[in-house]
Specification:
Elements lengths: L3 H6 L17 H20 L7 H23 L1 H4 L3 H22 L2 H15 L9 H20 L6 H27 L3 E4 L9 H6 L1 E5 L2 E7 L2 H10 L3 H11 L4 H21 L5 H7 L6 H34 L13 H16 L12 H16 L1 E5 L11 E7 L6 E9 L11 E6 L2 E2 L1 H6 L4 E2 L2 E5 L15 H18 L20 H6 L6 H8 L6 H9 L5 H18 L11 H13 L25 H21 L4
Parallel strand pairs: 6-10
Antiparallel strand pairs: 1-3, 2-3, 4-5, 5-6, 7-10, 8-9
Length: about 650
C-alpha cells in the first residue's frame, strides 16, 4: 500500500501535502516510492524524443519536480528537527540514498536530450506552451536553466568520464550529509560554579540547568548558541571563556575535518573534469561575480581598505585586555587578542564607544512578546492574517503551526502554512534557518480536471532561542531580535511566493539575491517605532534607543574583517588547482585567520569542522558575501524606496 506521504504528494489536491514524520513513518518506503516514481516518469519522458510537446514532455517534468520537492522534504527535514536520534539517523541515511539518485538523474543523457530538444523548439516558436505569459516566461527560464544544469553536470563528457563523475558527485553529497549530521549530534558541555560565570547576565544563568557535585551547585553550559555565546561574550573569567571557546571550536572535530578535506579533493577533481581550473571557478560561473578573477581582487582591495580601521579597533581591544588583566608593562608586547577574547572585548569596545550596555535592552524583549509582535508587524506590512492551527501534527511539542491568509482585496485567500520551532535541544539543527517544505506552483493536471489549479506553500522556521518557563521568562538580545526578524522575512518570502513553477518557489531565487528581502526588512530593528512595536507592551526609553541606533556602525570594520576571513578562506580552500597544492583545511584556516584577522586560532581547535556552510551548499560562493557586505547601505535604499523609511 502506498504511504500517506506518496499518496498526498502525487495527488491533484491543493492543500497542505507535506507529511511530518513520526516513529511509525516508514522513511525507507517513502524513499523507494519516490525514486521509483521519478524513474517511471523519466522513462516516459525520454520516449518522447523527436516528438516533444508541452503535454508529453515539459508538463510531466514540471509536475515531477513538485512531487520530488514534497517527498524530499518529508524525508530529509526529519534529520534536522526530530527529537528521536534513531529516526534522525534513518532520515540521514535516506537523504544519502536520495542524493545518490539525484546525481544519477541529473546526469541522465536521454532526458537531457529531450529537454534540449524542447528548448530548441520553444526558441524557434515550434512548441506551444500554456498561453499564459507569466507561466510561459517561467517555463522558458526553466528549460534554459535545466539544460545549463545538465551541461554543468558533465553531459558533454564521454560515457566513461560521466560515470566517474557521477560516483565522485555521489560521494561528495554523502560526505556533506554526514558533516551536517555530525555537527547536529555533537553537543558538548561544561560545568561551572557561579563564581566562574562572573559577569554573565543573570537572565542567562537562570536559564541554565544545574547539577550538584559534593554539595556544590554547578551550572551546565552547552554548546547551544543561546548558552555558549553569552558566556563567551560576558564572562570576566578568562579560563571559563577559554573552555567554552575551545568546546565550540572542537565540535565533531575529528570526523568533520577528515570529511572536509576529502570534499575539497573531490570538488577540485570534479571541477577539472568539467574543464574548470578550480572548484571556485566552477561555482562562480553561475553567480554574480562570474569568476574568482573578480572575487579575489575585490576581497583584497576591501581588506586593504579596512585594515587601518580594523587594526585601530583591535589595538583598543588589546589595550582593554591589558588593563583588565593588570598585565605588567614589561609583558605588554606579548599580549594579543585570542579567540576566547574576541567576542568579549568586542562587546566591551562597542559599549565603550556607544556608551550602551546592550544587556539593558534584554528585559524589553520577552520572547513571547517579541514573537507576537513580529508576527503582527508582518501581518500588517504584508496584509496577511495568521491563524494558529491547534490540531496540526508537528514533530515536537515546541513546534507550532499557522495558516496564512491574504487580507488584501476581496475575500480572504489562503496563502499557505508555516511552522515555528524556536528552542534548542540535542540533535536539532544548531543555527537559525527557514526550511521549505512544500513549494508553491501551478498544478497543471489539476487545472485540467477541475480539482484546483494552484498549490500553496509551506515552510518551517527553525531557531535556537532560549525557552522560557512559568515564572522564568526568556529574554532575547537585540541581535537575536534581528535574527528573528531576518529569518521571519525568509519565511514570508516563501509563503507569499506565487510562482508558476516549484523550482522558482519562495527563496529558490538567484543565490546572490536570496538575502536581500530579509536584509531590507531587518531595518525595522533599527528604528524607534519598530523596536517599540517589537517590545510592546513595554516602551524602551528614548535614551536607550538613541544609543542603540547610533551604535549601528560601531565596530563595523571588525565585523566586516571577520566575514572577510571566512570569505577569503573559502576562496582559497576551493581555489587550489592541483591535488598536490591542497592544504589541510584546518591548517589553511589558521593561516588565513592570522593573516586577515590577526588572530591565531587556539591550538587544538578546528573551526572549519564546525563551519556548516562549507558542507551545506555555500562552498566557494563568496559572491553571496560580496552581496552581504555591499548590502548594509543597499538594504536601507530598498527600505526607503518601498516603505518610505528615512534615517
Amino acid at each position: 500500500m502506498p504511504s500517506e506521504a506518496f499518496t498526498l504528494a502525487t495527488s491533484t489536491g491543493r492543500g497542505v501535502k507535506f507529511v511530518l514524520d513520526t516513529k511509525e513513518t516508514n522513511l525507507p518506503q517513502v524513499t523507494d516510492e519516490l525514486l521509483a516514481y521519478v524513474r517511471e516518469v523519466l522513462e516516459k519522458v525520454d520516449a518522447t524524443s523527436g516528438q516533444v510537446t508541452f503535454k508529453n514532455t515539459v508538463q510531466p517534468l514540471l509536475e515531477l519536480e513538485n512531487v520530488e520537492a514534497l517527498l524530499d522534504s518529508s524525508i530529509t527535514f526529519t534529520q534536522h528537527v526530530h527529537p528521536d536520534k534513531e529516526l534522525r539517523g534513518v532520515s540521514a541515511d535516506c537523504s544519502k540514498t536520495i542524493a545518490d539518485a539525484q546525481v544519477e538523474f541529473s546526469m541522465r543523457v536521454s532526458t537531457y536530450r529531450v529537454v534540449k530538444e524542447a528548448l530548441a523548439k520553444v526558441n524557434k516558436k515550434e512548441l506551444s506552451l500554456t498561453g499564459d505569459e507569466k507561466t510561459d516566461n517561467e517555463i522558458r527560464r526553466w528549460l534554459k536553466k535545466t539544460v545549463e544544469d545538465y551541461e554543468r553536470n558533465g553531459l558533454a563528457l564521454p560515457e566513461k568520464s560521466r560515470e566517474e563523475l557521477k560516483l565522485l558527485k555521489q560521494e561528495e553529497q554523502r560526505l556533506g550529509i554526514d558533516f551536517q549530521k555530525n555537527l547536529a549530534d555533537s553537543v558538548l558541555s561544561a560545568n561551572f560554579t557561579r563564581e566562574e560565570l562572573s559577569g554573565v547576565p543573570e537572565t542567562v544563568i537562570e536559564s541554565l540547568s544545574t547539577v550538584n557535585e559534593q554539595g556544590k551547585t554547578l551550572y551546565t553550559v552547552h554548546t547551544h548558541y543561546p548558552e555558549a555565546f553569552p558566556v563567551i561574550e560576558h564572562c570576566s573569567v578568562r579560563d571559563t571563556r577559554m573552555k567554552m571557546s575551545i568546546l565550540m571550536n572542537t565540535k565533531a572535530k575529528d570526523q568533520n575535518l577528515a570529511l572536509l578535506n576529502r570534499m575539497v579533493e573531490l570538488r577540485l577533481q570534479m571541477a577539472q573534469m568539467l574543464g574548470f581550473p578550480s572548484h571556485a571557478h566552477l561555482r562562480q560561473q553561475s553567480r554574480m561575480a562570474k569568476s574568482p578573477d573578480v572575487v579575489i581582487p575585490f576581497l583584497s582591495d576591501l581588506s586593504k581598505r579596512l585594515l587601518p580601521i580594523y587594526e585601530k579597533e583591535l589595538e583598543e581591544m588589546r589595550q582593554m585586555r591589558i588593563e583588565e588583566e593588570g598585565i605588567p608593562e614589561a609583558d605588554h608586547a606579548k599580549i594579543s587578542i585570542e579567540p576566547c577574547d574576541f567576542r568579549y572585548y568586542l562587546r566591551k569596545y562597542e559599549e565603550r564607544k556607544s556608551s550602551l550596555d546592550k544587556e539593558l535592552l534584554r528585559p524589553y524583549f520577552d520572547i513571547a512578546d517579541v514573537t507576537r509582535n513580529i508576527m503582527e508587524i508582518y501581518q500588517e506590512v504584508l496584509s496577511l492574517r495568521f491563524e494558529r492551527v491547534e490540531q496540526a501534527k508537528t514533530w515536537h511539542t515546541d513546534a507550532t503551526a499557522y495558516d496564512v491568509f491574504d487580507t488584501a482585496g476581496e475575500g480572504s485567500k489562503f496563502m499557505g502554512r508555516f511552522f515555528m520551532d524556536m528552542h534548542p535541544r540535542d540533535g536539532k539543527y544548531g543555527h537559525a534557518a527557514v526550511f521549505g517544505l512544500q513549494p508553491s506552483c501551478t498544478l497543471f493536471s489539476a487545472k485540467e480536471n477541475g480539482t484546483g489549479d494552484y498549490q500553496r506553500p509551506s515552510a518551517a522556521l527553525v531557531t535556537n532561542f532560549t525557552k522560557g518557563s512559568e515564572g522564568k521568562p526568556s529574554y532575547l538580545t537585540h541581535g537575536e531580535v534581528q535574527t528573528f526578524f531576518h529569518e521571519f522575512g525568509h519565511l514570508m518570502h516563501g509563503i507569499c511566493s506565487e510562482t508558476a513553477l516549484s523550482r522558482f518557489s519562495g527563496t529558490s531565487v538567484e543565490r546572490d539575491f536570496v538575502e536581500a528581502p530579509s536584509q531590507m526588512l531587518e531595518n525595522w530593528c533599527w528604528t524607534k517605532d519598530g523596536l517599540n512595536r517589537v517590545a510592546s507592551p513595554k516602551m524602551i526609553p528614548d535614551e536607550l534607543l538613541d544609543k542603540l541606533i547610533s551604535s549601528r556602525t560601531v565596530g563595523e570594520a571588525t565585523a566586516s574583517t571577520r566575514q572577510l576571513t571566512f570569505g577569503i578562506y573559502d576562496q582559497r580552500l576551493h581555489g587550489f588547482r592541483s591535488k598536490e597544492e591542497i592544504k589541510d583545511a584546518n591548517e589553511l584556516y589558521n593561516e588565513v585567520s592570522l593573516e586577515i584577522s590577526k588572530i591565531r586560532p587556539t591550538e587544538g581547535t578546528a573551526f572549519p569542522a564546525t563551519f556548516g556552510h562549507l558542507a551545506g551548499g555555500y562552498d566557494a560562493q563568496v559572491s553571496c558575501l560580496m552581496t552581504q557586505m555591499k548590502s548594509n547601505k543597499r538594504s536601507r535604499d530598498y527600505w526607503t524606496f518601498y516603505l518610505g523609511w528615512r534615517e
